């Protein structure tokens, strides 16, 4: 593995832009491809029927609440590997990756009962009984995918932190194509297969996760044999396990608080009816697709900030942080233009042209896309700020900011505006804007006002607090 060394002279803005693009574009592509797996489910089930679309919107939201909390251990591996690479500590790379895999497996065991027995929970959340049963049927199959999905998250973070982002892209692209094909066969019963509808989508998702894990672990073992990730895998490394846990739990809770804001909005839209929930599913899918660009840039910022943190190079980190923030802002502007200029065209891509409920879904969805355009800016900024803070292994305070912003501000505002003040779906999505906006302000203040000044001052202290 190539060692990352201190540059002889400060990198220019153009140099940072090229470096971030080289590292970040494959990560963006990988996130888009990963998102395309869920997006394929949404599109094909939208063609299959409105109830099926609403059910998988609900089930996917439920699954990802659990998955993204557990993925905190995978996310923790990324800055740890990046910092170790920056300071030339190869043994640390192996140790933190292994314990990330251990913690992810353990979390999967804990999460499985909530996936298998989801129906009573969905009922308690006030969902339509028909939709809840379809969603539970999906989760009884797709839920098993949480094991390979979490392991893939750790391995992707490990490879990305070593700047091997091309393989992350190609494995995820292959998974997306496989998912689309199996969906097409099993949802609709093509090529002589049985027509399984929602359950067919669940089988496709699980199969895709398994194949992704097999592909990426084979690559890691063959191309980076010096790390010997699975050799004596059964042996615990309690010191490193505690360190990954210490970083991973706050990251998981931060991610959970953010995704639960969107999950709560999906539940609230479900209270408004099947049409509102279907429109929400389409609008959130489109907003999520553009967010994948910000997430890829955020990962790139974590890796580059982690490298600079490992070297104690404050100037390099600060200039790179400014460049990646501007890149995210430009993407926000592009997405906003599309959402405001072509909302009906974008919404129609997800629906059968003959669906009798299409006019109602479009009427609701166009307004939701206008709100999505509003939160593009703040959604991107909070993602970049989180990426930078994770790069310097600052996770606890960002967790507290996230909980306050996403739950205290966002969910509360969504309920009050949507139901107490009677603004319906627009009110629910206005709460999203307020929660994300609050997070973006405080997270950026945390990085630029507090954390950046500590880099290089006490390099031996990995926690800037």
TrEMBL record:
NCBIfam families: matE (TIGR00797)
Membrane topology: Multi-pass membrane protein
Residues spanning the membrane: 20-40, 52-78, 99-118, 138-155, 167-189, 201-224, 244-271, 277-300, 321-341, 361-388, 400-420, 426-445
Keyword list, A-Z: Antiport, Cell membrane, Ion transport, Membrane, Transmembrane, Transmembrane helix, Transport
Protein's UniProt keywords contain Signal: no
Name of one Pfam family that matches: MatE
Protein name as it appears in the record: Multidrug-efflux transporter
Protein location: Cell inner membrane
Keyword Hydrolase: no
InterPro entries reported for this sequence: MATE_fam, MATE_MdtK, MdtK-like
Superkingdom as given in the UniProt entry: Bacteria
Biological classification of the source: Bacteria, Pseudomonadati, Pseudomonadota, Alphaproteobacteria, Rhodobacterales
């Amino acid at each position: 593995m190539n060692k990352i060394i201190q540059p002889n002279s400060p990198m220019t803005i153009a140099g940072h832009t090229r470096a971030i693009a080289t590292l970040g574009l494959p990560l963006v592509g990988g996130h888009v491809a990963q998102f395309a797996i869920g997006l394929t489910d949404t599109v094909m089930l939208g063609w299959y029927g409105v109830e099926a679309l609403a059910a998988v919107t609900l089930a996917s939201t439920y699954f990802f609440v659990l998955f993204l909390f557990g993925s905190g251990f995978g996310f923790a591996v990324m800055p740890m590997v990046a910092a170790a690479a920056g300071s030339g500590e190869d043994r640390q790379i192996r140790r933190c990756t292994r314990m990330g895999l251990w913690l992810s497996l353990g979390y999967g065991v804990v999460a499985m009962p909530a996936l298998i027995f989801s129906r009573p929970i969905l009922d308690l959340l006030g969902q339509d009984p028909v939709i809840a049963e379809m969603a539970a049927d999906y989760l009884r199959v797709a839920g098993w995918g949480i094991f390979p999905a979490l392991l893939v998250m750790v391995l992707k973070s490990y490879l990305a932190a070593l700047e091997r982002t091309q393989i992350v892209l190609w494995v995820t692209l292959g998974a997306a194509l496989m998912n689309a094909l199996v969906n097409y066969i099993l949802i609709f019963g093509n090529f002589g297969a049985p027509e399984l509808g929602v359950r067919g989508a669940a089988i496709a998702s699980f199969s895709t996760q398994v194949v992704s894990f097999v592909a990426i672990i084979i690559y890691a073992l063959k191309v980076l044999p010096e790390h010997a990730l699975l050799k004596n895998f059964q042996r615990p490394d309690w010191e490193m396990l505690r360190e990954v846990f210490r970083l991973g739990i706050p990251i998981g809770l931060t991610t959970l608080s953010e995704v639960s804001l969107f999950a709560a909005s999906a539940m609230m839209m479900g209270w408004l009816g099947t049409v509102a929930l279907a429109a929400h599913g389409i609008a959130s899918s489109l907003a999520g697709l553009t967010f994948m660009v910000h997430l890829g840039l955020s990962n790139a910022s974590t890796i580059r900030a982690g490298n600079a943190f490992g070297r104690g190079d404050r100037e390099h980190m600060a200039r790179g942080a400014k460049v990646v923030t501007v890149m995210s802002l430009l993407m926000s502007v592009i997405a906003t233009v599309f959402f405001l200029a072509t909302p009906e065209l974008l919404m129609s891509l997800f629906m059968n042209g003959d669906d009798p409920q299409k006019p109602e879904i479009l009427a609701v969805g166009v307004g939701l896309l206008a709100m999505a355009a509003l939160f593009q800016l703040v959604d991107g900024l909070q993602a970049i700020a989180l990426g930078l803070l994770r790069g310097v292994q600052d996770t606890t305070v960002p967790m507290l900011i996230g909980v306050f912003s996403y739950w205290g501000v966002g969910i509360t505002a969504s309920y009050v505006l949507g139901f107490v003040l009677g603004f319906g779906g627009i009110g629910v999505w206005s709460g999203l804007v307020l929660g994300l906006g609050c997070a973006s302000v405080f997270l950026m203040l945390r990085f630029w006002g507090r954390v950046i000044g500590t880099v290089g001052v006490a390099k031996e202290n990995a926690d800037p607090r």
